[in-house]
Amino acid sequence: MSSVFVYCEIEDGQVAEVSQELLTKGRALANELNCKLEAIAVGHQLGSVAGQVIPYGVDTLYLADDARLYPYQTLPHTSVVVNLFQEQKPQIALMGASSIGRDLGPRVSSALHSGLTADCTSLIIGEHYDKKQDKKYDNLLYQIRPAFGGNIIATIINPDCRPQMATVREGVMKKEILDPKYKGKVVDLDVAKYVSDTDFVVEIIERHMEKSKVNIKGAPIIVSGGYGVGSKENFKLLYDLAEVLGGEVGASRAAVDAGYADHERQIGQTGVTVRPKLYIACGISGQIQHTAGMEEAAQIIAINTDPEAPINAIADYVITGDVADVIPKMIKYYKKNTK
User: Residue 285: CA atoms inside 13 Å, Cβ hemisphere, count?
Assistant: First the structure.
C-alpha cells in the first residue's frame, strides 16, 4: 500500500476542477508519505487526459477507455475502480464530493470494506495512539469535516482499513500545476478484465444538464450578506452594490436559512468555498462555519454594527455601521470616483 490515488471526473474530455484540486493535494500528501501519486480516468476518448493530469505530479495514470463507460454510470465505474484498487492497493483514495463522487465513493468503500469520510474540508497526515490496544499508528490520514450541521469540526481517522477514502468539496483545496514537463506513466487498462456484461444493465437514453446560473466560485468580487442584513428586501442593496462593482452576491448559512438568499449563493463549510480578490461581508458575524469558506480572500471588508464581531479579526478593513446606511454611501461614492 504505497500510493495516493485520485479518481478524476471527466466531462467532454475535460478533467473536473475538483479533480485538479485533489491532484494538487494528493501530490502534497504523497510527498509527505514518500510514495507515488496515481490517478484513474474512466470514460471514452480520453486521449487528452494525460496532458491535463500528469503536470500535477501524477506518477501513474490509469485510463479505462471504452465507449460504454461514457457518460458516467454507477455499476461499470464502480467495477473498474474496485478491481483496480484491489490490484494496486492504495493507502489513500480521494474523490470529489460531487454528484458522481457521492455516488461512486460509498459503493467503492463498501465493496472494499474500507470506510469513507464524506465532504472533507481538510486533509493532513498525522499519528494516533490507541490506548486500548497500546498501539501507535503513524502516517494516518486525518479526514477533517464539519459535523452536526456545521456546528463542530470532526477529525476522522481510519487506522486499520485501507484505502483511507475521502470525498472533498470543490473549491476547498487549491489547484496548482507542479511541472508542465513532469514525466508520468500512462497505463491503458483492458476494460474487459474489469467489468462484466451485468454492469451495463442500465442504458442511458437521454441526458439533460443545466449549469448553475450563479458563478460564486469564479467571481473576483463578492458582496456577501448575513442574518444581520435584516431582511430579503435589504438584500437588494447587496445586489445593487455587486452590480456597480461587477461582482456576485453571496450569503451566510443564517441568511439562507432565513430566506434572504438562495442556497446556491451560500458560502462556508456547508456551502461553497471562495477565494475572491475582494470580499465584502455585510451583517456577517464571522463564525468559523462561514469564515472557513472565505478567509483566503485577498481583501476582506467587514460591515457590521457590532465592533466586536469575530469577522473583524480577519478583515483588512472594518466599517462599524448599519448595512442600510453604509452600502448606499459606498455605491454613491464609488460611482462618483469612477466617472
Answer: 9
pLDDT in tens, the chain (339 residues): 589 999 999 988 889 999 999 999 999 999 999 999 999 999 999 989 999 999 999 999 999 999 899 989 999 999 999 999 999 999 999 999 888 999 999 999 999 999 899 988 889 998 888 888 888 888 899 998 877 766 678 899 998 889 999 999 888 888 899 999 999 999 999 999 999 989 988 888 888 877 767 778 888 999 999 999 988 888 999 999 999 998 999 999 999 999 999 888 999 877 888 889 999 999 999 888 888 888 889 999 999 999 999 999 999 999 999 998 999 999 998 888 776
Which residues, in sequence order, are CB contacts of 236 under 8 Å at separation 6+?
A: none
Angstrom CA distances, 294 to 34, 71, 311, stand at 32, 33, 11
Q: Please give the domain boundaries of the chain with CATH numbers for all domains.
A: 3-200 (3.40.50.620), 221-337 (3.40.50.1220)
Alpha helices in the chain (DSSP H): 17-33, 49-53, 74-88, 99-112, 191-194, 235-245, 253-257, 288-291, 323-337
**Contact at 8 Å (CB) between 305 and 321?**
yes
SS3 265: helix
Terminal-residue alpha carbon distance, the chain: 63
- 314: three-class secondary structure by DSSP: coil
Q: Are 281 and 226 in contact (CB under 8 A)?
A: yes
Side-chain-facing half-sphere of 44: CA atoms under 13 Å: 9
State how far Cα 117 lies from the chain centre.
Answer: 13
Q: For 92-114, give the DSSP string.
A: EEEEESSHHHHHHHHHHHHHHT-
DSSP track, 209-234: ----S---TT-SEEEEE-GGG-STTT
Please identify which residue in the block is written with the cell numbers 469535516: 145
Cα–Cα distance measured from residue 247 to residue 270, given in angstroms and rounded to the nearest whole number? 22
